[in-house]
Amino acid sequence: MIQAFTPTAAVVFVLAGVGLYYYFRQEKARLAEEREKERGLKSYGRPNIGGPFSLITHDGKAFTSENILGKWSMIYFGFTNCPDICPAELDKMTAVLDDMQKQHGDIFLPVFISVDPARDTPSQMSEYLKDFHPSFIGLAGGYAETKAVCKAYRVYFSTPPNADPKGDYLVDHSIFIYLMDPSGKFVDAFGQNVGQEEVEFKINEAIANWQKETGKKV
Amino acid sequence: MGWFSSSTKEDVSAPTRENRKRCWETRDAYFACLDSAGVVKAGEEGKACVPEKKLYEENCAKSWIDYFNQRRVIAEAQKDRLARASEQAQAAKK
Fold this sequence. Notes:
Chain A has 5 helices and 7 strands.
């Protein structure tokens, strides 16, 4: 008959138990430390904003989400017939760009995406953008493309699919400037209440973090 | 009515900085007139601000006028609410 319980077995059992206990405790501490380190380097809980899109620029060229890579892009959604909020936000972006380009060089891409596909033709966009920073890219598409890009950026807009291209109407839409890093990932969103200086501070901070991780500004 | 009908090119009717500025200025003048007439809701001023209103309507699109007028009413209501809230806050402190 096999004796299941011997003093040797008892010792082995206890030793194994104690060993495993210390092993798991150490592993747990190591994993926690790793997580902590990762959290310090990367921004955690980054919302999943952005994604593929395909639109037409204000000078009639194709432009996709691939084209925002390699620069720090600032993306704003609006429409050319906007009474006061859009032009104020685009003026803010223009002032920010003037400062940032002076400090960092030509590493920024300001993008204005229309939420009014019925009226904002390329020529309309091109005319409108003359009043703002010369590096602005104006983007528009059909209703489906507009809806898709708004969905990717979590932007609400009220234009109906059958809007009259000659109609006199306003578009209700969310007001955010999205900062995307050179790999196309979302960094921050600035609402209407975030002033020029705060936007610049946040951009500088993002560039500094990027530089720390990659050794480069873009 | 504004640059929508006076635009010479068919396709392009994008309001320019100049258009916007003129519209805002005529709006401010009209609203100042409403203020002095003690009227909040545009259209209720009777014969008080006819020249200001005419300029406003000539320089702003109809959709903009509706928007600015509505916002004026909302802003007034908000002012009232804020005033009442701060009164209540003061009263609560006593």
